[in-house]
Design a protein that fits this description.
The chain is elongated and about 55 Å long. The chain is built from 8 helices and no strands. Helix 4 runs antiparallel to helix 5 and helix 5 packs antiparallel against helix 6. With 199 residues, the protein is mostly helical. The longest helix is centred in the last third of the chain and has 34 residues.
Length: 199
């Protein structure tokens, strides 16, 4: 089953990382995991933006046209998948600095399973109130960082001290990727690909 590690990452993360390290599924398996789990935020964002409407604070609920919401969701999906693949590449590229020799599949597993809690936050969009989604998002981000710090020494087979520095470097790279994605979004919006609101 594609999502067979999902429960273990929440219930007993260190033991689940050990299981992932022993089994090492194929590159296709990890890619399929990313492609499926990244659908969660994309689909829920589409539904909430086009049908429920977002509550930003005081004032009217904000809705997008269905076409605009669909384009935004497709863009979000592609950005999420590209972000995980980019993070996996950076994990693989930085490995030699920390005396680790992972395959790209191992790097992709680390990036994919670390990003999973962030993707699961997408369910919060079904209650599209900004403060609620931000709180759930913060919890998801915190748990993703925890998974990264606990998973790096196991997947990369390096001591925990080096694993801490390695994971900190990955977090920094992840933040840089996030800024790049946000900057690309702003550029695309300024070129006329911004959202269309319902009147």
């Amino acid at each position: 089953m594609i999502l067979n590690h999902l429960w273990g990452l929440y219930a007993h993360p260190r033991e689940e990382w050990q299981t992932i390290e022993k089994r090492h599924e194929s590159l296709t398996y990890s890619l399929t995991h990313i492609l499926i789990v990244a659908l969660i935020p994309a689909i829920t964002a589409y539904y909430s933006a086009a049908h429920l409407g977002w509550s930003i604070g005081v004032g009217d609920v904000i809705k997008l046209t269905e076409q605009s919401a669909m384009m935004m969701s497709i863009g979000m999906y592609l950005a999420l998948v590209a972000g995980v693949l980019g993070l996996a590449y950076l994990v693989h590229w930085m490995a030699q600095t920390f005396d680790a020799k992972p395959s790209f599949t191992q790097s992709l597993e680390l990036a994919a399973y670390t990003a999973t809690p962030l993707f699961m936050v997408g369910f919060a969009a079904l209650y599209p109130v900004l403060w609620f989604v931000m709180m759930v998002g913060l919890a998801g981000l915190t748990y993703s960082v925890y998974l990264l710090y606990s998973g790096v020494p196991i997947i990369m087979k390096i001591p925990e001290e080096k694993g801490f520095i390695y994971a900190s470097s990955v977090v920094t790279c992840g933040l840089v990727l996030l800024v790049i994605i946000m900057a690309a979004s702003v550029i695309l919006w300024s070129m006329g690909f911004g959202p269309e609101y319902m009147s």
